[in-house]
Amino acid sequence: TPENPRIIALFDVDGTLTIPRGEVTPDMMEFMKNLSKKITVGIVGGSDLPKQEEQLGDGIVNVFPYNFSQNGLVAYKNGEVLEIQTISKHLGEDNVKRLVNWVMKYLSDIDIPVKRGTFIEFRSGMFNISPVGRNCSREERNDYEKFDLEHNIRKNMVAAMQKEFADLNLTYSIGGQISFDVFPQGWDKTYALRFLEEGEFDEIHFFGDKTFEGGNDFEIFTHERTIGHTVTSPEDTKEQCTKLFLS
């Protein structure tokens, strides 16, 4: 048990504990393990668990008391599974079919310069929808991005889906060059907070690098239950945590 178990610090992975898409350094991991002797530590990553393990090491769910991957849709406490939630479980198969069928119809009616393959990618926590198709080449991807900015292909499609599926309470996020994500409202990193019971902690700190509006740390960073800290790198995370918890 840490010295101050009623203080918990939650950490984003990419850009916070590791360089973007990189692996954690032994030095940083050592620091985090020392920190967890002082306070309760939790990980909140957007990627799935296998990807998180690539970055933080195998068996990461056993290293710190709380581990959340896919924003908390997969939640562990002390190495034990608390919950595994999926979009198909949440919406039900009939609604999944309704959405997939509608998207395929809509995409078959729009005219864009090229169409390739993989227009809908079904992930456990979201649908990723791409009018040009995810397996386009880099050049086609760049061309599509320009076309999309001029003709609002994704923007118009999102507006149509918001109308069509108003009953499902979905959030639409246009990111990257060629696609947008569709997921249930509240399935950002604040989802993880439901596993931290109200009376269990006096302070919930969150450290992340994408804390600006539109960034995937924004909602948890600004949430009323958390004390948010913006970091610029693993070194910065280390520095801020040393000042806050170790001095």
Structure explained in plain terms:
The chain is an alpha/beta fold. The chain is built from 8 helices and 11 strands. The strands form 2 sheets. The chain has a 7-stranded mixed β-sheet with strand order 5-4-3-2-1-10-11. A 4-stranded antiparallel β-sheet has the order 6-7-9-8, with helices on one face.
The CA-CA distance between the termini, in Å, is 19 Å
Helix count equals: 8
Shape annotation = elongated
Radius of gyration, in angstroms, nearest whole number:
20 Å
**Main sheet: strands, sense, barrel:** 7 strands, mixed
User: What is the overall pLDDT average?
Assistant: 96
Give the strand tally: 11
The assigned structural class equals alpha/beta
Strand order of the largest sheet: 5-4-3-2-1-10-11
The run of helices and strands is EHEHEEEHHEEHHEEEHEH
- As a percent range, the share of strand residues is 15-25%
Work out the helicity level: 25-40%
Low-confidence stretches: none
Summed up:
The protein has 247 residues and is an alpha/beta fold. 35% of the residues lie in helices and 22% in strands.
